[in-house]
Amino acid sequence: MPDILTASQMRALETAAFNSGAVTGLELMERAGQSVIDALFSSKAELATGEHRAVILCGPGNNGGDGFVIARLLFVLGWQVRVYLYADPEKMPRDAHANHDSWVDLVPECTQRISFPSVLPAEAERFGDEAFGNGEVDVIVDALFGIGLNRPLSGLHPILATCHANRHEAYFVAVDVPSGLGENGPLEAADWSVFPADLTVTFHRPKQAHQNGLSFCGKIMVQYIGL
Question: Which amino acid positions bind (6S)-NADPHX, per UniProt?
Fold first, then answer.
């Protein structure tokens, strides 16, 4: 097994684990979400106790499903959590959809849909006001897109630009890889087109995207999830 994995190699590992019966997709998603929280608390010990506030950006795939697990687990720990969903939940993969439903059933009033595939400027302004307006947000989690992304995120430009404009107002955490970073580097030339991570939490092994975009990843922590 190579020390650095491509997206296709990681997916092959996951598929082999599912096919062997070693783990289900839901179990793996739960482990991934918990491992992000473990890494967050290891990196920022002051967040492990007390009341804090998180904003979670969830995308249309399994990375978004990880985000819903993170939201639920932080809420259970006593955090104030707001989710922004960049997806049609009915079109999400089965396991991601299940975790969406678990979150919405738990806290129905704390999820805000944003237009997919193109975020409206007014929605980005609302996101900025709610996430950064009162200066109390502690953590922004990027669970929009994971490894293997191969197209620019032009529809998300207003959200990404808002994150960059408030770069020092919160601790920015990327799940697996910062959104907007492809396997060979940024998918667009502008620095603000990639989520500005302070911490990137990836699973099993470092990924090729990290090596080609180190300046966007912040601190990289590899978490083992039983593959």
Answer: 62-66, 146-152, 176
Long-range CB pairs of 117-121 (<8 Å, 24+ gap) are: 117/155, 118/154, 118/155, 119/86, 119/155, 119/156, 119/157, 119/158, 119/159, 120/158, 121/158
Residue 182: C-alpha distances to residues 141, 197, 198 (Å): 18, 15, 18
pLDDT digits (tens, 9 = 90+) for 83-135: 999 999 999 999 999 999 999 999 999 999 999 999 999 999 999 998 898 77
Question: Domain ranges in the chain?
Answer: 7-223
Annotated binding-site residue? 184: no
148 is in an annotated binding site: yes
CATH topology classification for 7-223: Rossmann fold (3.40.50)
Q: Is 129 annotated as a binding residue?
A: no
For 71-95, write each residue's pLDDT tens digit. Answer: 999 999 999 999 999 999 999 999 9
pTM tops 0.70: yes
- 150 carries a ligand binding annotation: yes
106 carries a ligand binding annotation: no
Q: What is the pLDDT of residue 116?
A: 94
- Please tell me whether 218 is known to bind a ligand: no
185 is in an annotated binding site: no
> Residue 64 annotated as binding?
yes
Using DSSP's 3-state secondary structure scheme, residue 13 falls into helix
Sign of CA dihedral 185, 187, 190, 193: negative
Question: Known binder of ligand: residue 101?
Answer: no
